[in-house]
């Protein structure tokens, strides 16, 4: 049987890396993307132990020209792309909105919104033309409601929800499926990035609660992709057991 192909952005760590491992384990050929070439090559070698073909493409999804060049360079052996996982994203800072850093805002908007749009625009037309494919956007519980200091990040994830819903409407005449996967607290390097490498502050985010792991989210993504073609998992909110929503978390003393 011919293998399917999954393309995963932001695959060098966290949820993206976990998705690459899960889909490779599930028999998919994998296209991994990220900004760090050496990390991609290390992951490529690990994925190939699953007996699948792996293509590593180093580029920044915020750079539209680089993104176009990378997508256009994908060889025929990795086509068609059956699953696109728009995972590349980040949070920066936790200051009040009136004290926020312009550079942090630009980075979040460019990556979480424009990067997702760049990939969608370049990959989904092929899915529509073939009447087959699945787009899984990694959103967040933060897209449901704002929290203190996170207004801009929450706005970008609310945009992911709107863009996912809009794409689902736009492809409803086809068999292309569209999923918004919204994690809560996931222990990755997400908080380290948010706090610019302050590990102690990042560790406090997960203090007193057993958070989700990247593999938990990857399992849900794989389940959505594995559902029968007439079944569309439109939106999934995944929380740790002691997390009720974006702001209510029970922490053990």
Write the layout of secondary structure elements.
Layout: E1 5-8, H1 14-25, E2 29-34, H2 37-48, E3 54-58, H3 64-72, E4 83-86, H4 102-130, E5 133-138, H5 151-170, E6 176-183, H6 190-194, H7 199-205, H8 214-226, E7 235-238
Parallel strand pairs: 1-2, 1-4, 2-3, 4-5, 5-6, 6-7
Helix pairs in contact: 1-2, 1-8, 3-4, 4-5
Write a structural description.
Helix 5 links the parallel strand 5 (133-138) and strand 6 (176-183). The chain is an alpha/beta fold. Strands 3-2-1-4-5-6-7 form a seven-stranded parallel beta sheet, sandwiched between helices. It contains eight helices and seven strands, in the order βαβαβαβαβαβαααβ.
Summarize the structure.
With 253 residues, the protein is of the alpha/beta class. It is built from eight helices and seven strands; from the N terminus they run βαβαβαβαβαβαααβ.
Notable traits:
253 residues, alpha/beta, seven-stranded parallel β-sheet, 8 helices, 42% helix, 15% strand, globular
Helix/strand-derived class?
A: alpha/beta
Identify the strand order in the major beta sheet: 3-2-1-4-5-6-7
Strand content: 5-15%
Radius of gyration: 18 Å
Question: Helices and strands, in N-to-C order?
Answer: EHEHEHEHEHEHHHE
| Main pleated sheet | 7 strands, parallel
Average of the residue pLDDT scores = 95
Number of helices: 8
Distance between the termini: 52 Å
Shape: globular
| DSSP, total strands | 7
List unreliable stretches of 5+ residues: none
Helicity range: 40-55%
């Amino acid at each position: 049987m011919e293998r399917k192909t999954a393309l995963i952005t932001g695959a060098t760590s966290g949820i993206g890396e976990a998705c690459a491992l899960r889909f490779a384990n599930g028999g998919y050929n994998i296209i991994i993307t990220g900004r760090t070439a050496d990390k991609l090559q290390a992951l490529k070698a690990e994925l190939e132990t699953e007996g699948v073909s792996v293509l590593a493409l180093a580029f920044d999804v915020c750079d539209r020209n680089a993104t176009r060049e990378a997508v256009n360079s994908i060889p025929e052996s990795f086509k068609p792309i059956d699953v696109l996982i728009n995972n590349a994203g980040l949070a920066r800072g936790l200051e009040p909105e009136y004290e926020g850093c312009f550079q942090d805002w630009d980075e979040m908007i460019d990556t979480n919104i424009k990067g997702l749009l760049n990939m969608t625009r370049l990959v989904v037309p092929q899915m529509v033309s073939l009447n087959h494919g699945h787009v899984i956007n990694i959103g967040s519980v933060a897209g449901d409601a704002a929290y203190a200091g996170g207004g801009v990040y929450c706005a970008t994830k609310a945009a992911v929800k709107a863009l996912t819903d809009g794409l689902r409407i736009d492809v409803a005449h086809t068999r292309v499926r569209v999923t918004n996967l919204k994690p809560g607290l996931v222990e990755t390097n997400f908080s380290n990035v948010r706090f610019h490498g302050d590990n102690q502050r990042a560790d406090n985010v997960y203090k007193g609660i057993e958070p989700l792991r990247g593999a938990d989210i990857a399992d849900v993504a794989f389940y959505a992709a594995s559902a029968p073609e007439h079944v569309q998992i439109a939106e999934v909110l995944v929380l740790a057991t002691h997390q009720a929503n974006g702001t209510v978390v029970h922490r053990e003393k």
